[in-house]
Amino acid sequence: MSIFQDIRTAFSRRDNALNQLLLINVLVFVAFLLFRTIIFLATQNRQGHMPVLEWLALPSVPGTLLTRPWTLLTYSFIHFDFFHILFNLLNLYWFGALVREYLGDRRLVSLYVLGALAGAALYLLAFNLLPVFRGTPAILYGASASVTAVILAAATLLPDFTFSIILLGPVRIKYIAAVLVIVSIAGVNGGNPGGEIAHIGGAILGYFFIKQLQRGRDLGRPVQAVGDWVGRLVTGRPNLRVTHRSRPVESTTKATGPRKPGQEEIDLILDKISRSGYESLSKEEKQKLFKASQQ
């Protein structure tokens, strides 16, 4: 099977959000790498790719942003440095797998998108309101805000889950998340203040996303609704209409498969995970959590 067929297969699956996010980032990175090389060979100009980058990266100037509103999202898929994309995608893979397993594909995508928007919002506020940044045009690109949102979401949901880190051994992910936030705050006065500020925006979103979810409010529903609308627009499938018909009382008591868990049950399970970790769940509780993630 060819690489192109593998990519097509990956995007044709509906339960493959993590791999799809990883692939989009890799494909964009490779496309820009080839584009930069071709431009350099043709023009001998190492900055010949900048017009395309500026068209997709997030500008700090509001007037420019109004002419490029798509950059609020497209910036979160652009990388130029190999170690930048490697670090981001490794973290997205590790922490995204946790979020996907416990909350499902749709909420993982919602976190990625909302993390990008939150990072963009804080970046724009900082560069237009804080005197230290105001008047300094800049652009923002990279998946770091989205990835940070996923990391903080995983750490908020499963604070005592451990990763084995070389030279350190088992480390709880709540400490990994805490170090990441501290490093981002400390880096605001460094060489990449815009990126660090976006990290903080993503971190805040990831934390509140889980806290609101535990209270029964899914902040990702608008993102999911827009995604469903775009999907119907692309595929041409009409909205499904469900007609409810009255049935005899006795027929409603027949078993038709496992019942869907209620929000109270899910909240109790999430609380248990927060206290004791995912490993403390029974098989039945894990099945309920997985079923809820598919709703």
Task: Summarize this structure as a short list of keywords or feature phrases.
serine-type endopeptidase activity; two-stranded antiparallel ribbon; Rhomboid-like_sf; 65% helix; Rhomboid-like fold; 13 helices; 4% strand; Peptidase_S54_rhomboid_dom; two-stranded antiparallel sheet; 2 domains; mainly alpha; Rhomboid family intramembrane serine protease; membrane; 295 residues; 4 strands
Structure description:
InterPro entries: DUF6576, Peptidase_S54_rhomboid_dom, Rhomboid-like_sf, Rhomboid_protease_S54. Residues 260-294 form the DUF6576 domain. The chain crosses the membrane at residues 21-42, 72-96, 108-126, 138-158. It is a multi-pass membrane protein. The chain has 295 residues and is mainly alpha-helical. It has two domains: 15-229, Rhomboid-like (Rhomboid-like fold), CATH 1.20.1540.10; 261-295. The chain has helices spanning 3-12, 17-43, 50-56, 62-67, 71-74, 82-103, 105-129, 144-157, 173-186, 193-214, 221-235, 263-276, 283-293, and strands spanning 58-59, 139-140, 162-165, 169-172. It has a two-stranded antiparallel sheet. Strand 3 (162-165) and strand 4 (169-172) form a beta hairpin. Helix 6 (82-103) crosses helix 7, helix 6 runs parallel beside helix 8 (144-157) and helix 12 crosses helix 13. It is globular and about 60 Å long. Residues 240-259 have low confidence and may be disordered.
